[in-house]
From TrEMBL:
The keyword Flavoprotein applies. NCBIfam families: LLM_duo_CE1759 (TIGR04037). It comes from Streptomyces huasconensis. It holds the Pfam family FMN_red. The keyword DNA-binding does not apply. Transmembrane segments: none annotated. GO terms for molecular function: oxidoreductase activity. This is CE1759 family FMN reductase. Keywords: Flavoprotein, FMN, Oxidoreductase. Its EC number is 1.-.-.-.
Length: 221
């Protein structure tokens, strides 16, 4: 299997790359995979050229192809103005619209304060949902004061285990013995804009009930 790690840190070394490396190590504890790191900072000029000309230079094209071919993806960004960085967004703007469909993705972010801890939920998760990726339930945000704390280490370990589970062949939504993991599967399943997921069947499918039907049932009651 192939695990691709996209790190959008702007310095070297960076807290963003450190978080990306720890998430990678946590994932590889549970999955036999080859890891490849894409440092977006090193592709900044190529990204700008592609946005202007519509043609990716060879190094950028190789990075985009690696993301598209990955069995799992880790994406980590520093926080800028309460959201992901512009460089991070520019890179994923260049990904083919179908490249991440159904691909398990672990998202992470770093910042100077815990006040930005919801960036993974209000910015990153919607971005990857738009790209139709399967974002694992546990996202990891690391503020400056979090490094060295047990809470961060526990979140990293949990997130890495979730990504490894969904990368495994036939492992999307399955537990250790191959039984459906309904809690995790329901947590990352694509949400319908017109219905609500109410159950997960043994074959891994989802029962979606239209909101109109649910409202009608409530009125009857």
């Amino acid at each position: 299997m192939k695990l691709v790690v996209v790190s959008a840190g702007l310095s070297s070394p960076s807290a963003t790359r450190l978080l990306a490396d720890r998430l990678t190590a946590a994932t590889l504890e549970h999955a036999r995979a080859e890891a490849e790191v894409v440092e977006v900072r090193e592709l900044a000029t190529e990204i700008a050229q592609h946005l202007v000309t519509g043609f990716p230079p060879a190094r950028l094209a190789a990075a985009l192809d690696a993301v598209a071919a990955a069995d799992g993806l880790i994406a980590v960004t520093p926080v800028f103005a309460g959201s992901y960085s512009g460089l991070f967004k520019s890179f994923f703007d260049l990904i083919d619209k179908d490249a991440l469909t159904g691909k398990p993705v672990l998202i992470g972010a770093t910042g100077g304060t815990a006040r930005h801890s919801l960036v993974t939920e209000h910015a990153m998760r919607p971005l990857f949902a738009h790209l139709r990726a399967l974002v694992v339930p546990t996202a990891v945000y690391a503020a400056s004061e979090d490094w060295g704390e047990d809470g961060l280490a526990a979140r990293i370990a949990r997130a890495g285990g979730e990504l490894a589970r969904f990368m495994a062949p036939g492992g999307q939504g399955t537990g250790p013995a191959g039984a459906p993991d309904t809690d995790t599967a329901a947590a990352i399943a694509p949400r319908s804009l017109t219905g609500a997921i109410t159950s997960v069947d043994p074959d891994g499918g989802f029962d979606v009930v239209p909101f109109a039907r649910k409202l009608a049932a409530l009125r009857v009651e």
